[in-house]
Amino acid sequence: MKQLDRSDQRQLLAIARRAIEAGVSRGAFADPVAGSLSASLTEPAAAFVTIHEHAELRGCIGLLRFEVPLWINVRDAAAAAALDDPRFLPVDASELSALELEVSVLDPPVELPNPSGFVAGRHGIVVERGPHRALLLPQVAAEMGWGETQMLQAVCRKANLPGDAWRDAATRLYVFESTCFAEADPEVEPTAG
């Protein structure tokens, strides 16, 4: 699992917030100054950015681009979560102060040959069958109070597959672990940026 120190976490949260503010105001995002990013932030890693407003989901987009630097994936996922999540209207400038951000940095998924190896809460899950694909982050299990079967059913439904499609040999399952941190976590409270 990718380890990020608190400074890296704060910097990623600040990048995400600036990307959302720039996207909402249709302004330009000022990339971080060369040399101001740690090696951990410039290494390739996939990321999701989740936006909450008053404790309710307001947007969540992830980029499984494992060849792109982490900070760029966070920047792009944050803007997309605010403006392009098809479940929600785009974030408006009046909402910016009420938003709370969460970043998840994903390890590369590995194929799961047997669903009994899935551990809800530890693993995130990806399901694929034909053109259908969906992903649930590890923290969804705790947030929803779900066990393994409920997570597997939910990721299948999210992919527009029958809830029991995970039992079908034609369905491919992948698991991953992630590091998740949020602005609301006191130990990673972001700095002004």
Description:
The longest helix has 19 residues, at about 5-25. The protein has a four-stranded antiparallel sheet with strand order 2-1-3-8, covered by helices on one side. Strands 4-7-5-6 form a four-stranded antiparallel sheet, with helices on one face. Helices cover about 30% and strands about 25% of the residues. It folds into two domains: about 5-105 and about 180-190, Hypothetical protein ph0010, domain 1 (Glycoprotein, Type 4 Pilin, 2-Layer Sandwich); about 110-175, Hypothetical protein ph0010, domain 2 (Dna Ligase, domain 1, 2-Layer Sandwich), CATH 3.30.1490. The chain is of the alpha+beta class. It starts with 5 loop residues before the first helix and ends in an 11-residue tail after the last strand.
Q: What is shown here, in short?
A:
It is built from 5 helices and 8 strands; from the N terminus they run H-H-E-E-H-E-E-E-E-H-H-E-E.
What attributes does this structure have?
193 residues, alpha+beta, Glycoprotein, Type 4 Pilin, Dna Ligase, domain 1, 8 strands, globular
Fold topology:
Layout: H1 6-24, H2 39-42, E1 46-53, E2 56-63, H3 70-83, E3 99-106, E4 110-111, E5 124-129, E6 132-136, H4 139-144, H5 148-158, E7 172-176, E8 178-182
Antiparallel strand pairs: 1-2, 1-3, 3-8, 4-7, 5-6, 5-7
Helix pairs in contact: 1-3
